[in-house]
Design brief:
Helix 2 (46-59) crosses helix 6 and helix 7 packs across helix 9. The model is unreliable at 1-19 and 304-308 (pLDDT under 50). The chain has 308 residues and is mainly alpha-helical. The protein has helices at 18-37, 46-59, 64-71, 81-86, 95-99, 102-110, 117-133, 139-144, 147-173, 225-230, 237-240, 256-269, 273-277, 290-301, and strands at 206-208, 216-218.
């Protein structure tokens, strides 16, 4: 085995304090994810995804109509969610109401508390209709007319919106002003989506476990591993468990490359899973009481600035 070359002691001027390294790590992770989100997707074009990213960054916790509806809370859950959200006077930043997907983007970014299975089905049809009218649904998918292919395209929209909200949150948490800059997609063949149909990467299509939720997932044993390898998707152990029906992240999976990019970002921005799981382990030593925990929490939060 080749040994790494000994570089000798680290010079004082080369040392970067942890407090400086952490923001640099977050900046790099955010920039990488934004570039991925504005590039070719699983089913969506690069320009479509970039438009969704920009709309999400602009509307999250900022659209007056969304804020008014959100203020009503869960108790004011409308009978027809998609019609209620569409009936509001939203403030869109992208042309043509984000290319026709504006109300879906605003709903995902700001109205998660009222979204339900009925909304999910209707939003999937809306997304499919918009993409079809724009000529962004390939012939093979239109001829198959599969529900899975409709749902998977909505799943990609969900992934892109959720990832954009996450980038925005970290941007603000680091005390930065304005919004992150989104890279413009290149033109040419490289902006085409990776897939036409769900069966291109999973032979059994989407699975829904109604006892555990109405969101779809992929069956791990039916994934076409060679397709994932071709896209450079090599999942570490913790990421492979996302296809479990009990894992919330399994609902990202119908847009495989997008969910992988999100997970790579999570690996940089969140504590490692093995560290997080230690919170649930019984440790030896003195016991910290509830009073002690509240004292620590109060002392910490009173000395930290929150930029969310």
């Amino acid at each position: 085995m080749e040994r790494k070359q000994d570089r000798g002691p680290v010079a004082a001027e080369d040392f970067v304090p942890p407090a400086t390294r952490r923001p640099q790590t977050l900046d790099a992770a955010n920039d990488r994810l934004l570039a991925k989100l504005c590039g070719p997707g699983d089913f969506l074009t690069a320009s479509r995804r970039a438009s969704i990213v920009r709309e999400t960054l602009a509307c999250t916790a900022a659209c007056p109509a969304c804020l008014a509806l959100h203020a009503e809370g869960r108790k004011a859950r409308p009978q027809d969610v998609i019609k209620s959200i569409a009936g509001m006077q939203h403030r869109f930043s992208e042309p043509s109401e984000c290319g026709g997907l504006g109300i879906v983007v605003h709903a995902l970014a700001n109205q998660q508390h009222v979204l339900d299975a009925k909304w999910h089905e209707e939003a999937a049809e809306l997304v499919w209709g918009v993409l079809d009218e724009a000529g962004e649904v390939p012939r093979s998918a239109k001829e198959a007319c599969s529900r899975d292919d409709r749902i998977a395209r909505l799943c990609e929209v969900v992934d892109v919106v959720a990832a954009s909200v996450g980038v925005r949150a970290y941007w603000r948490a680091m005390g930065k002003k304005g919004l992150p800059a989104t890279p413009m997609p290149a033109s040419g063949d490289q902006v085409r989506p990776h897939f036409e149909r769900v069966i291109d990467f999973c032979s059994s299509g989407l699975h829904v476990d109604l006892a555990k939720g109405w969101g779809p997932r992929l069956e791990d044993k039916d994934l076409r591993k060679e397709v994932f390898a071709r896209l450079g998707i090599v999942k570490p152990g913790w990421m492979q468990s996302l296809t479990s029906p009990f894992a919330p992240g399994s609902k990202w999976e119908p847009a495989p490359s997008t969910s992988f990019d999100c997970c790579e970002w999570l690996a940089a921005t969140y504590p490692p899973t093995k560290c997080f799981l230690k919170l649930f382990q019984k440790l030896d030593g003195p016991i910290i009481t509830r009073v002690d925990m509240e004292a620590v929490g109060s002392a910490y939060t009173s000395r930290m600035d929150c930029h969310f």
